[in-house]
Design a protein that fits this description.
about 300 residues, single chain, 14 helices, mainly alpha, two-stranded antiparallel sheet, Serine Threonine Protein Phosphatase 5, Tetratricopeptide repeat, elongated, 3 domains
Length: about 300
């Protein structure tokens, strides 16, 4: 269909909407798309360059309509013609399905975007908020493994908020209740890890601190073997320093090696029972040593 003919059809349809013939009562004066179509129809100016059609409008700036190819304008306007007088129903279930696929592929930001779109479509249904909470939990674990503890905590907070939204929409949603409990436990672990990291950076000696920083750099690039080796060297240099043992325990936590993490954190606790974050981390792991009873 020629572009100018398509523009005239859409402009006429806008006029019908403005007079109430289609039931929407949208005035062509208030419709930006309608103004653009009327202007293009009024000028009817078209030229041909090496790439195809170039449309120009006297009433709009060059960034809006200049150098639009005919096929792009035709496609956009055909969608406007179809939906000018009807309100399309967005596909909620399709958004959820695509979001789950993105989540399974570990593309968590893309999954969150789809679930947010689903939530905008129907805020009374809890599934979208629940799935967003799951995404933020996975993102928190990813940030934790990258030693981005602030980012991990931020994503834990977002997960809790999403699970709260799901519970508000459907108070009997058991998976959302479990998800919130998991997010709070994860937040506690990450908060303890942040305390350990800050404390270890202050308490370690110069040589051990250099090795700890080197381990962080290795971990950021995904070289976990070299990161582990650097931290073990730090514990060898300062064997009686609780901070370096706590830092190694924190590394094992990021690698999901809880048994090794518990051993290092308990050693740090033995050396310094008051070490910040160590007690919290052991409590989160249900591995806090029992305090000897006084006789």
């Amino acid at each position: 269909m020629p572009v100018l003919r398509m523009l005239r059809i859409f402009a006429a349809r806008e006029e019908d909407c403005g007079t109430g013939h289609c039931g929407t009562g949208v005035s062509p004066v208030k419709s930006q798309a309608g103004r653009l179509c009327h202007s293009l129809v009024a000028t009817g100016d078209r030229t041909v360059d090496g790439h195809g059609w170039r449309l120009r409008s006297a009433g709009f700036g060059p960034r809006v309509v200049a150098r639009w190819r005919c096929i792009i304008v035709g496609s956009l306007l055909s969608m406007l013609v179809i939906g000018a007088c009807t309100k399309p129903v967005p596909p909620y279930d399709e958004c959820i399905r695509v979001g789950r696929d993105e989540y399974a592929a570990q593309r968590y930001p893309e999954a969150v975007a789809m679930f947010k779109h689903a939530a905008d479509i129907d805020r009374e249904r809890p599934e979208a908020s629940y799935h967003m909470g799951q995404c933020y939990l996975a993102m928190a674990e990813r940030r934790f493994s990258e030693h981005n503890l602030i980012g991990a905590l931020r994503n834990c907070d977002r997960a809790v908020a999403c699970f709260d939204d799901a519970i508000t929409a459907f108070p009997g949603f058991g998976r959302a209740v479990q998800g919130k409990a998991q997010a709070l436990r994860l937040k506690g672990k990450h908060a303890a890890a942040l305390e350990i990291a800050d404390w270890a950076a202050q308490q370690s000696g110069a040589q051990a601190r250099k090795l700890i920083l080197k381990a962080h750099e290795y971990a950021k690039t995904g070289n976990m073997d070299q990161a582990q080796l650097a931290l073990k060297q730090a514990t060898s240099i300062e064997a009686d320093n609780a901070a370096v043992h706590a830092e190694l325990g924190l590394f094992y936590l990021r690698c999901d090696n809880e048994s090794a993490a518990i051993g290092c954190l308990q050693r740090a606790y033995e050396l310094n029972p008051g070490a910040p974050g160590v007690v919290k981390a052991l409590a989160q792991l249900n591995a806090l040593p029992e305090t000897p009873r006084r006789q």
